[in-house]
Amino acid sequence: MAYRSFSHFIDELDRMSELIRISNPVATELEITELADRQMKTTGGGKALLFEKPTIEGRVSPFPVAINTMGSERRMARAIGLDSIDEIAHQMQLILKAKPPTSLKEGWSLLRQGIDLLHARPTHVTDGPCKEVIHRFDVGSNFSLKDLPILLCWPKDGGRFITLPTVYTRDPDSGERNVGMYRMQVYDERTTGMHWQVHKVGARHGKRYYERNEPMPVAVCLGGDPAYTFAATAPLPDGLDEILFAGFVRKKSVELIKCETSDLEVPADVDFVLEGHVQPGELRPEGPFGDHTGFYTPVDQYPVFHLSAITRRKQAVYPATIVGVPPMEDFYMGSASVRIFLPVFKMNFPEIVDMALPAEGVFHNLVFVSIRKQYPYQAYKVMHGLWGMGQMMFSKYIVVLDEDCDVHNTSEVLFRLCANTDPERDTTFIKNPNDSLDHAPTTPNFGSHMGIDATRKLPSEGYDRGWPELVRMDDKVKAKIDELTAKLGL
Ligand SMILES: Cc1cc2nc3c(=O)[nH]c(=O)nc-3n(C[C@H](O)[C@H](O)[C@H](O)COP(=O)(O)O)c2cc1C
Ligand SMILES: [Mn+2]
After folding, report:
1. CA-to-CA distance for 223 and 10, rounded, in angstroms?
2. N or C: which terminus of the chain carries fewer CB neighbours within 10 A?
3. pLDDT higher than 80, residue 365
4. What is the maximal distance between C-alpha atoms in the chain?
5. Helix (H, G, I), strand (E, B) or coil at 310
6. What is the pLDDT of residues 100-109, one digit of tens each?
7. Strand ranges (DSSP E) for 336-461?
8. How far apart are CA 157 and CA 193, in angstroms?
9. How far apart are the first and last CA of the chain?
C-alpha cells in the first residue's frame, strides 16, 4: 500500500491509535525534543506526535511538525504499507531464490532486476502536489528556511538542523540517481550544511563534481510517502536506486517530477522540495550536533548547500526526528533494514540464522549474529565476511553465537558470551574503516574492530574437554506443568 501524502500516513497512524495530536503551542527550540524523547524512551517506542502549533522564536508556524512516525515496530511496518516487515524480507528472498546467484555481485544485480520487474520503475509527471506553491528566489520570493519549523534539537547544538531530509543527487558520469539521508545544519535563510560522510554515495557524487569543477545540483525532499524517507536510510549498495526500492516496498511506482531550477527529479507528492546546489570545494564548519552516538559530534568541515527555490504543498507537514542517547526512532528504522536485508546476508553466508544490531550499539558498534556452525573457525569467516559488506564495515564489535541463541535477547547473548568464551582464545582484532561519527578512535574514520566467537568450541578447534550441555527441562514435564498451571490459573 502506498500513501498519497505524508498527511495520509499521519491519518493512518491516528486511525491505528498510534498518534498523539498536540494542539498547545510547543517551541521548536528544545521543547519538541524533550516531548519526543520521552515517547522514544517509552517501551516499544511510544507514540508518534503531531505538533499542530509548533512555535519558532515564539511565533506559531503555519506548518505542523510530525515526529517519531516510524519509531516503533508497528509504525515502521505501516510506514512502508505492511503489517510486518517480514513480508518484504520474504519477497527479497523469493527474488533471490528464483535463480540462486553464485556471487554477491550477481545477487545484487538479480535483486535489482527482480525489484525492477515488480512494477517498481518510476513514472514521470509534469504536475503534482509538491508544486502547489512555488517560491523561486531568483524572482524575488522571500519565503525561506526561517519559515519552516526546523528544530533546535539539543542545548549545545550549533544551530537548527533538518533531521529527516532525503537528499537527491546524480552521478555526473553515469547519470545514476542516489537518495540518502544526510542531516542539514541551517546557516541562514538560504544556506545549510550538507553532512554526507566520506563513505556515503552523496559524498562520492560530490567528489566527481569537484574534480570536474562543476556546481552540483542537489534537491532535498521532506515528507511525502514515508517509503521514500525509509529508502533514503536503507543501506543499499551504490547504484541501486532508492526510488526503485521505494516503489518495490510500497508496491507502486513513484511519480517523479522535474525541479524548477535544476533537472533533478523528485517524487511529486512530497511536502517540501528544497532546490539548490553544492559548490565544488566550498566547506564550512558543521556542528556540534547531539548525535545518534549519544554524544555531541564535534565541529567538522562539510560541504555547503545553497538554496535556489522551495516548492511545497499548500497544507504541508514538516517531518522531523531527533537522535541522541539510544533508544531513539532511528533504531526502528535500522532494525527494519536489518530484517529486509537478512536474506542478502544469508545468501552470502548460508550458515547465518539471525542477526541483531541492539539499540545500545547504535547500529555500527555492536552486531550479534547466530550461525549454524559446521566447521572450525567458521565464526571468524562470518565476521570477516560481514566486515567486508557495505556499511557493515563499520561494525566495531561482532559477536557470533550458536543457532539456538535468540540474538534479539541481549540478556541471553551476554549470558552466552560470558559463559562460552576464553577471552584471549576467542577474540580477534582487525583494522577497518569506522563510522565518521565514532569519537572513540584516535583518528577519525578508521580504527580497530573486535570479533568474539561465542559459539560452542569443537574438538577440531583444539577443544577436547567435551563441550557441556545447556541445562533444560524435559518437554514432557513442561507440557504436564503447562496443563497444571492452566488448571490452577497461575
Ligand atoms: C535519522 C538519520 C540521520 C542520518 N544522518 C546522516 C548524516 O548526517 N550523514 C550521513 O552520512 N549519514 C546519515 N545517516 C545514515 C545514512 O542515511 C545511511 O547510511 C544511508 O544508507 C546512506 O545512503 P547512501 O548509501 O545512498 O549514501 C542518517 C540516518 C538516519 C536514520
Ligand atoms: Mn544509495
Report:
1. 11
2. C
3. yes
4. 80
5. strand
6. 777 778 888 8
7. 352-356, 366-371, 397-402, 427-433, 446-453
8. 14
9. 42
Pocket of ligand 1 (CB under 6 A): 178, 180-183, 195-197, 200-202, 232-235, 321, 323, 330, 333, 391
Which ligand lies nearest the alpha carbon of 393? 1
Q: Decide if 381 contacts 343 (C-beta within 8 A).
A: no
Residue 202 one-letter amino acid: G
pLDDT given at position 264:
98
| Cα–Cα–Cα angle for 107, 111, 116, rounded to 5 degrees | 150
Helix H or strand E segment including 432: strand 427-433
Residues in contact with 273: Cβ distance below 8 Å, sequence separation at least 6, in sequence order: 130, 219, 220, 221, 222, 259, 266, 309, 310, 311, 312
* Given 269, 291, 438, 453, the catalytic residue: 291
Distance of CA 392 from the midpoint of ligand 1 (Å): 14
**pLDDT interval class at 121 (50, 70, 90):** confident
Residue of minimum CA distance from atom 23 in ligand 1: 180
Residue 197 and residue 273: Cα distance in Å, rounded?
22
Rounded to 5°, the CA angle 180-182-185 comes to: 155
If phi > 0 it is left, if psi is from -120 to 50 it is alpha, else beta; for residue 19 that is beta
Cα–ligand 2 centroid distance for 204 (angstroms) = 10
Three-class DSSP category at 67: strand
pLDDT exceeding 90 applies to what percent of the chain?
A: 91
State yes or no: pLDDT of 118 exceeds 80.
no
| Residue 224 region by backbone torsions, left for phi larger than 0, else alpha for psi between -120 and 50, else beta | left
Cβ count near 155 (within 10 Å): 10
The DSSP secondary structure of 211-222, one letter per residue, reads HHT--EEEEEEE
Cell of 406: 535468540
Read off the pLDDT of residues 281-336 as tens digits, 9 standing for 90 and up. 999 999 999 999 999 999 999 999 999 999 999 999 999 999 999 999 999 999 99
Share of the chain above pLDDT 70, in %: 100
How many beta carbons lie within 10 A of that of residue 2, not counting itself? 18
Residue 116 has pLDDT above 80, yes or no: no
Is 435 assigned a catalytic role? no
State pLDDT tens for residues 436-482: 999 999 999 999 999 999 999 999 999 999 999 999 999 999 999 99
Binned at pLDDT 50, 70 and 90, residue 98 comes out as confident
Query: Among 166, 200, 238, 364, which residue has the most ligand 1 atoms within 8 Å of its CB, making it the best to mutate?
Result: 200
Give 97's pLDDT tier (boundaries 50, 70, 90): confident
